[in-house]
Amino acid sequence: MIKKKLNSISLSSWVFLILLVVLAYIPIVMMINISFRSNGQIYTSFWALPSPWIWENYTKAFNEIAINIFNSVVVCSIATIGVTLLSSLSGFVFSRLIFPGKEIIYYLILSLMMIPAILTLIPLFIQVSSYGLLNNWLALLLPWISGGQVFGIILCRTFLSALPNELFECARIDGASEFRIYLRLVLPLLMPVLITLAVVNLVGNYNDFVWPLLAINNHSSQMVTVALSQLGVENGTTNYGTRMAGYVLSTIPLILVFIFGMKYYISGITSGAVKG
């Protein structure tokens, strides 16, 4: 009797989970479906399959946003490298070194997480404008690197603080400098956490829309999120097939990131949970 109840619960759980997966993938399937259709097909039979399949939507979308996808990949990759490098350095300093005012400085950094990013948008725009960095990739890189470090420092410091102090003392007794300890000991231990941090920052920066819209005005230097908002507009009408094709193409870099980094991403989340 108990076994039958357990089997029924297990079956109902599987049915519920499958239903959730189906509901989650319906928008993705419809996006791909619409990307092969014209406006006429969409308006007359929204749920039908493409007839005929319009592959030219992908050609038009690629020609329009290929440079923007490249821009987003390059800028977000540079920003992610900067965030992971500086976060690991700062996390090591705050967790293992002793200097006056360390806790005060750390809690000041921690308090930045309580400030909504939208509140700093206008002051940040005025600051970047006064530096003459508008319409320059530095206008994106500097805020993304500095802003992304807040979460990264907390994550790295929490992870390193949970490690036994004897590990670092042994390295110092063997004559290793602090920088050598960072390179040979801290970085290998932090690698799963840094990959998790890199994925989170890369996805967040890649999907950012408001700040690139304000900071960059040149289409050839613009990020893909802003370029997508203007894709497929001709003579005051929007070609939704071309726009959806652009959405599909723009997700390819993120899909590749998750394919190659998912194992390390999950490992980093697990490590953070266990160490916490």
UniProtKB/TrEMBL annotation:
Gene3D superfamilies: MetI-like. SUPFAM superfamilies: MetI-like. Its main location: membrane. The keyword Transferase does not apply. One of its GO terms (biological process) is transmembrane transport. It comes from the Bacteria. Keywords: Cell membrane, Membrane, Transmembrane, Transmembrane helix, Transport. PANTHER family: ABC TRANSPORTER PERMEASE PROTEIN MG189-RELATED, ABC TRANSPORTER PERMEASE PROTEIN MG189-RELATED-RELATED. Belongs to the binding-protein-dependent transport system permease family. This is Sugar ABC transporter permease. It comes from Paenibacillus nasutitermitis. The lineage of its organism: Bacteria, Bacillati, Bacillota, Bacilli, Bacillales.
